[in-house]
Each structure stands twice: as structure tokens, then as C-alpha cells.
Amino acid sequence: MNNYYVIKYLDQRRWAEFVSNHSQGNIFQTPEMFDVFRATKNNEPVLTALLDKKNNVIEGLSVSLIQREYSGAAGRLTARAIIQGGPLMRENNREKELTGLLLRHYNREIKRKAIYSQYRNFWEQADSIPVFREHGYTYEEHLNLHIDLTKSEEQLWREVSSKRRNEIRRAKKEGTTVKELTRETEIKEAYEILKEVYSRARLPLHDRSLFNAAYDILFPKGNIKFFGAFYEKKLIGVIVVLCYKDRVYDWYAGSRREYYKKYPNDLLPWEVFLWAKKAGYKLFDFGGAGKPGVPYGVRDYKKQYGGSFVNFGRHEKVHKPLLMKAAKLGLKLWQKIK
55 in helix, strand or coil? Predict the structure, then answer.
């Protein structure tokens, strides 16, 4: 460790260049996403950056998001740290050793703030499992679904299940259309739809300030897109995607229950695939698809759009075991109340 030092702040230009030039660089590790998280109520982003003392070179970094459902004392019972697509380490023959150094410092810093940490991998990370295990993390398998946008539109359409193709056709026949949302008033309306969806599913949703900040910071750079499904000029469904380098990430989606028979949930992903392909993106990351072998309705829905499953897994470490038990009980109680 004598040859390296850890800091919580970085020059944004250097930070952005490091992520952009990294083969596994992704939107969630960028300074722009850090700023979005920082502007979100009850959230706290934490940057852990490892630098070489001699040359002041960035050897690695990790952006962790501490999520809380509430402020104050109640917030401490729901505080968890999520790291998506990190850490990013300079690709050399010391990668494992330096990952260990970064994790050691991160664990010391985060254990005062979060009940547990979870690293969600976006690429194959089998070689890092022993390093994470050495620092108290357990590994579990977890699926994501990828849509290869380099395929022709005809190939993509053939991979969509016949049931889903029929419902996409029905959506169009019913008069459902999709267009990009660009006005702030549309974004506010889209959030209300998501709020309704998450409440119905008894799941927590980020505060509106997340979407306001994303619109202010990411939208001008083209790193976020909002798409809406409309029926008779009324917004009935929405999908929010993040865009970075050659990838599009599914972020949030949902529709109004009373318009299910207009098939907005069926049409929206397909239209976004076509938009992303036309815009030159190569991959659509459909996001989490649960644990292999464990029934999961979301996975069943996503698989009907074709694509292929990847199993990059997750690393998790519980920092406060007693609070973890209390948090699980609190979540069940919150869901019952909802």
C-alpha cells in the first residue's frame, strides 16, 4: 500500500477519460452518474479511487451508491451500497492485487454507512472471485439478458416469441404509438406512471429527484432517453434507458394498468431496440433476470424478446448482520403496509 493512496475525489476530466478508455467502462461508474446520485434525495454516492504515488496514475476506481428509503434514523435501517459495473481496475498484471487494496479501503469506509454492499458485475469476473472472497464477500450467480443489436432487424424479429410478436402487432392495431419524451413535463408524468407501477408491486422507487437530476445532467449529453407509449395522445407507458459507448441499459419501465390491453409493455422494448440499432448501438442490456434455476416472472417476460442470458454474478458482503436481519423484517412490514 506504500506505493499507492486512496482518495474520494477526482478531477472529473481524468475520471471520465479513465472510464471511457476502460474496456469495461460503463455509465454507472462515470462522474456524470455520480453527480446524478449526489443530487438524489436520501442517496449518497461514494467514490473510492486508487492512485499510484509515483506517477499519480489512476489504478482503479469504484462508484458505490448508498440507497436509503428514508432520511434520519429510519434511513440507517435501509441503507445498502450498490456498485454496478465496478470496480474498474487498470488492466495490467497487478489487477488482482490492486483490487484487494481498493476493497480493503472501501470496506473500512463503507461499514459505517451501509448494512451491506453488493457488486453487480457487467462482465465476466470469475478471476476476481477469490479476491472478493478474501475480503469477506460471497459470490452468487445472477443472470442478465443481452440483445445483440448488430443483428439485422429481421433476425431480431425472428427471435421474438410468436406470442410477443402478436402482441406487438396488436398494440399497433389498437393505435398505440411510441415516441421519445423530451419535455420536462413529460418526464414528470412518466415518473407518476413508474410510481404507480412500483407501488402496485410493493417495491421501493427512487425519489423524483433522481429523474430530475438525470434529465438535467445526462439528457443534454445523450446519456439518457425517455420513451413513451401513447394511446389517443395520452401517455400510458414509459421506458427509461441509459446510453453509454456502444451500450443501452434498460433502467426503468412500466405502464398504467387500465391500458394493458393496448399492449404498451409489449411494444415499448421492441421500438427501443429499433431506435438503438438505428442510432448505432451494439448491445441492449435488458438488466437483471434473477438467479438461475429460480422461477422469476421478469425473466420469463424478457426472454420473449430473444437475446441471450449471461451469468456474471454478484459479490455481496454484510457489514452489519443484526441490522441486516432488522432490515429484512422492516421490508416485509413495509410491503404489508403498502
Answer: coil
Distance CA 164, CA 120 (A): 29
Residue 123 confidence (pLDDT):
94
Radius of gyration of the chain (CA): 21
Distant-in-sequence, close-in-space partners of 132: CB < 8 Å, separation ≥ 6:
103, 119, 139, 315
How many C-beta neighbours within 10 Å does residue 16 have? Answer: 16
pLDDT at 62 over 60: yes
Do 4-142+313-337 and 145-309 show the same overall fold?
yes
- CATH H superfamily, domain 4-142+313-337: Gcn5-related N-acetyltransferase (GNAT) (3.40.630.30)
Q: 156-210 pLDDT, tens per residue?
A: 999 999 999 999 999 999 999 999 999 999 999 999 999 999 999 888 899 999 9
The mean pLDDT value for 76-99 works out to 90
